[in-house]
Amino acid sequence: MTVPSLAERFRADFPILDQTVNGHPLVYLDNAASTQRPTSVINELSRYYRHDHANVHRGLHALSTRATALYENARQRVATFLNAEDPESIVFTRGTTESINLVASSWAGNELKPGDGILLTQMEHHANLIPWQIVARRVGARLYFLTVTGDEGEIDWSQLDTIFTDNPIRIVALTHISNSLGRINPVAEVCRTAHKHGAVTLIDAAQSAGHMPLDVRAIDCDFLAFSGHKCCGPTGIGILYGRKSLLEKMEPYQTGGEMIVSVTFEGAEWKPPPHRFEAGTPHIAGAIGLATALDYLDQVGRNSIQENDHHFGNIAATRLREIPDLRVFGPLDERAGIVSFQLGKIHAHDLVAFADQHGVALRGGHHCNQPLVRKLGLHATARASFYLYNTESELDRLVAVLHSAAKYFG
Amino acid sequence: MDFDELYQEIILDHSKRPRNSGVLPPPATRGSGYNPACGDEVTVFVLKSAEGKIETISFQAQACAICTASTSLMTLQVKGTTQEQALEIQRHFIDFLTKDGSSEGLGHLRALAGVKKFPQRLKCATLGWHALEAALKGDAG
Ligand SMILES: Cc1ncc(COP(=O)(O)O)c(C=O)c1O
């Protein structure tokens, strides 16, 4: 193996990993649900609350000035992280879910007309499906889906151009990396095709932001969403990147304090983006902690994380396939560090409970991909997802636990 | 060990070889239970005799071992009872799991005691029982 182990260099930065669960050293393989936080992020949250906290954009005193500077610097940090032109295209939200709801409500809710099309794939997380179902019902738009086929979860991208030619698609919203299949979608190509047909694009980067270099100018997307907690940052903070020309035309999502220029008893005038979309007191500490997390990711190197992910995804899929009666979902190679599988007839819940008993944290269920899991003829799958701190000996532990489970339930 | 308490031999047995598994056609009534958290689904079919007793009962499950075994054991326990008796057993069983109620008269269902230490599996253990209630009160079909 030519890939140097990131875990050797960085695992010690994650204090939570150093514990036993049910008498065994913890093997944390539920990173697609949420990653863990490095000491630098934990310390920064504590430092902020000990020294700098006050509300932002309101007070004229020293603490408020400091908090405001840190909060707005965090916005700049995110812009740099995404290679966005301008920090004003960065909106702080609660997470991917809220970012997508914001676009569905404030962009699609006002722009779409009856009969307009919204194009999704069949591998979308519920967060990138249900907001579109709701807005489609509200405005009379129609949902179109790119079909996902087989256990490998393939999408036939060659049909994309025709779909745009034949149907009045106004927006395409798709995931960058599938949280259940570990498949990486060609988002830049999709955006190019969509723009050729005058459609707007949204990328769900929940599973990619902490795992690979992301460049909104290279992808050329109109919107991009991700969550802090899936990339070493705090929970409750997320990002919506929006092309400025679109954000400027959008109505607010929520209303209240922070987002107005002037208010009379009869009406109000909105601030320009991004503050127009940040009504109320934001998650200040979350934004600051997220900026620290992004520093950390760049210190590790997002190219290295991506290589590490590919390495673990590929060897995990290969080694799991060697287990008798084990069915792996997702692409055969070039996968992210996410492997969903079904072991014999063992229900995912039983398998996850068994693994937990041996200190191995997996996810079992439909992973908020219910229609897709149904399509595979299943109700639930088990999932192992790797991150920069996982080791090959942890993969050995996973393989061993699956062999034991096959015996126990077999 | 707690885990083997949860997955007792009898639970594993009933999950691998569920009793009364299958579909009953109308006039049997049916009821379903669905767990949105995991997608598990159980459908229970009940055919009552002229005197109102559960004459035949069956179920179909797409579910974990705990849920399948609990439902399988349930069908054995409530067969031959009236609707009131069956619902009384249901209350009794749920109290046993959630309120530390007595296990007297629960027979093999006692094997599910391990669920008390795994509260996240409570829904699994009771899903079939909610389907039973729906089937008893439900329509044919
Ligand atoms: C692909 C994808 N999209 C969206 C989400 C939703 O993220 P959040 O719950 O942080 O809003 C997730 C999280 O599981 C995800 O994996």
Mean pLDDT of chain A: 95
How many E strands of chain A?
A: 19
Question: What oligomerization state is this entry in?
Answer: heterodimer
The coarse overall form of chain B would be globular
CATH homologous superfamily identity of the largest domain in chain A: Type I PLP-dependent aspartate aminotransferase-like (Major domain)
Over all CA atoms, what is the radius of gyration of chain A?
22 Å
* Helix content range of chain A: 25-40%
Please give the number of β-strands of chain B. 3
Strand content of chain A: 15-25%
CATH architecture level-2 label of the largest domain in chain A: 3-Layer(aba) Sandwich
Gross geometry of chain A: globular
The biggest sheet of chain B amounts to: 3 strands, antiparallel
Low-confidence stretches of chain B: none
Lay out the secondary structure.
The complex is a heterodimer of chains A (410) and B (141).
Chain A: H1 6-10, E1 20-21, E2 24-25, E3 27-28, H2 39-51, H3 62-81, E4 90-93, H4 96-111, E5 117-121, H5 130-139, E6 142-146, E7 148-149, E8 154-155, H6 160-166, E9 169-175, H7 187-196, E10 200-204, H8 216-219, E11 223-227, E12 238-242, H9 244-247, E13 260-263, E14 268-270, H10 284-300, H11 302-321, E15 326-329, E16 338-343, H12 348-357, E17 360-361, E18 363-365, H13 370-375, E19 381-385, H14 392-409
Chain B: H1 2-6, H2 9-16, E1 29-35, E2 40-48, E3 54-62, H3 65-78, H4 83-98, H5 122-137
Antiparallel strand pairs in B: 1-2, 2-3
Helix pairs in contact in B: 2-3, 3-5, 4-5
The structure holds pyridoxal-5'-phosphate.
Q: What are its keywords?
A:
heterodimer, A: 410 residues, alpha/beta, Aspartate Aminotransferase, domain 1, Aspartate Aminotransferase, domain 2, seven-stranded mixed sheet, four-stranded antiparallel sheet, 14 helices, 39% helix, 18% strand, globular, B: 141 residues, alpha+beta, Sufe protein. Chain: A, three-stranded antiparallel sheet, 42% helix, binds pyridoxal-5'-phosphate
